[in-house]
Protein: HTH-type transcriptional repressor RspR
Organism: Pseudomonas reidholzensis
Amino acid sequence: MNEQLQPLKKPVRNGKAGRSGTQDDIVYAHIFEAILEQRLAPGTKLSEEALGEIFGVSRTIIRRALSRLAHESVVLLRPNRGAVVASPTVEEARQVFFSRRMVERAITELAVQHATAEQLNELRQMVREERDSFSRGDRGAGIRLSGEFHLKLAEAAGNAPLVSFQRSLVSQTSLIIAQYESGNRSHCSYDEHMQLIDAIEARDAAQAVSLMMHHMDHIDSKLNLDEESASDDLHAVFSHLLQTKKRAPAKG
């Protein structure tokens, strides 16, 4: 079944998952990306059978990928009832955003001290890709790139435990936004991201932290208890993989 599993078109920038990853790395990366792009609705049942069919791998591989996602608190593993995408309560959402603020402050302060010119250039390129995605109406890709920006910034801070913690917080935040975001869903994160990079490059810690807190305020201000935009249909979420498999020539 190995040949059926399609790698990500764009490997996850900061993780092991990608074209050279193991099967569970790639399954993990696809599901993580679907969460970052808000294509998977909170509360979605993650059927091992359906995911095994979609990715063309064994249920053992699916379980390993789901276990990694559960470790990051974006999937819940329920005994005898299977896995579901986490569905944060209002109180849990508040706790995640509080933790995210603390971590973003520390990351920003460290990035001012440690970010290299090369890392800042990579961040600027990500912001340009994020802006282009929103401009052409690809909201999912824009949201994913916005999340990846914060993961890349954590790398620039040079603190490995913060990178790991941030990865979990970013994916949980994406679920919270999918569950609770309101309004016209306009995004100006790329402008705020670019201003933040400029402050980090100027080694202005006070300004950089102020900009990051304003950015978090902006995200927080758009949340309420209403709409959900993601899907609970696994075949719809990963339809691009199924289409690729159908187009692939049969191997005899």
